[in-house]
Amino acid sequence: GTGPEAAAVTGLARHALRLLAREGFGGPAVLGNLLDLAEVMAVSALARKESRGGHYREDYPNRDDVNFMRHTMAYREVAADGVESIRLDYKPVVTTRYQPMERKY
C-alpha cells in the first residue's frame, strides 16, 4: 500500500509481531508469514471505505453493500526496480441461502 496511513498501520503491525517474536512466538518463517498477512490486512482495510462486522472506520461508519459486497484478493508484486507492493483485486459475492444483513450489536 501507499500513503502515510498504510505506512502507519503496517508499521504498527510489524512492531507488534516483532514483540511476539522476541517472546518466542514461532520461528523466522512463521513470523515472516505473519508479517506478510498483517501487511495485506492493513492495506485491504484501508482500501475498504466502509464499516462492516468487526471492521469499523470512524471516517466511514456505514456499511456500503453497493461498492463493497465483494471478496478482496491480494497479490504481492515486485516492480522492475525491485519495489514490492500489494495489488488488490475483487471477486463478487455469490448470495445463496442466507441474505446478507447488517449486524446489530
The N- and C-terminal alpha carbons lie at a distance of 31 Å
The largest pleated sheet is described as: 2 strands, antiparallel
Shape type: globular
- What oligomeric state is this? single chain
Low-confidence parts: none
Radius of gyration over all CA atoms, rounded: 16 Å
Kindly state the mean pLDDT as a whole number?
A: 81
Topology, number of strands? 2
Structural class by sheet pairing and helices: alpha+beta
Q: Helix amount, in percent?
A: 40-55%
Written as H for each helix and E for each strand, in order along the chain, the element string is: HHHEE
The total count of helices amounts to: 3
Task: Trace the largest sheet across and list its strands.
Answer: 1-2
Percent strand = 15-25%
Characterise this structure.
By secondary structure, the protein is α+β, with helices and mostly antiparallel strands. Helices cover 42% and strands 17% of the residues. The protein has three helices and two strands; from the N terminus they run αααββ. It has helices at residues 3-22, 28-47, 65-68, and strands at residues 70-78, 84-92. A hairpin with a 5-residue loop joins β1 (70-78) and β2 (84-92). α1 packs antiparallel against α2. The longest helix is centred in the N-terminal third of the chain and has 20 residues, at 3-22.
